[in-house]
Amino acid sequence: MTKIDSLDTSILKLLQENGKRSYTEMAKMLEVSEGTIRTRVNRMLNDKIFEFIIHMDPNKIGLQVQAIIGIATKLGYQEQVANRLNQCKEVRFVGVFSGRHDLILQAYFKNNEALVDFVNEELAQLEGIDTVDVSIELKQYKDSFSYIANGEEHHEYVEENS
């Protein structure tokens, strides 16, 4: 297991604020060497504690409809359905949940017609789906990939090879 200490947490906070921040700038801010920052960042990347991604605004790239779709699967089909949904370009997230739905997914579409086509053509063709419950986002209050709040210290253990 990899231990995340206060310096790692501080580096993560700085990268959350600005993922393009230089190692030199972070080193000055944290009063450590640039080599220390580089080593820590590389270790955390190798240990898959974080990854650099591009977070786009779906609306600005022509995806005007966000849907959260709950799916109830037939017994024994959950993993097969999830694996097939992973391959759909519209789908951003697929997870297994307790409760009414076996799978919940988040998907983006250019318009309502594309969503209807996805449900009636893609989902209808998947063997193992019992029911589908579609909710369309009407208004968004928060969309964040930040898990470390300012002033909050997380010194968690991260399981290797997870």
How would you describe the overall organization of this protein?
With 162 residues, the chain is α+β, with helices and mostly antiparallel strands. It has two domains: 2-54, Orthogonal Bundle (Arc Repressor Mutant, subunit A); 58-136, Lrp/AsnC effector binding domain/regulation of amino acid metabolism (RAM) domain (Alpha-Beta Plaits). Helices cover 35% and strands 21% of the residues. It has five helices and six strands; from the N terminus they run βαααβαββαββ. The chain has helices spanning 6-17, 23-30, 34-46, 78-86, 112-125, and strands spanning 2-3, 65-73, 91-96, 103-109, 129-136, 157-158. The strands form two sheets. A four-stranded antiparallel sheet has the order 3-4-2-5, with helices on one face. Strands 1-6 form a two-stranded antiparallel ribbon. β3 and β4 form a beta hairpin. α2 (23-30) packs across α3 (34-46). The longest helix has 14 residues, at 112-125. The radius of gyration is 20 Å and the shape is elongated. Residues 154-162 have low confidence and may be disordered. One of its GO terms (biological process) is response to amino acid. One of its GO terms (cellular component) is cytosol. It comes from Alkalihalobacillus alcalophilus ATCC 27647 = CGMCC 1.3604. It holds the Pfam family AsnC_trans_reg. Keywords: DNA-binding, Transcription, Transcription regulation.
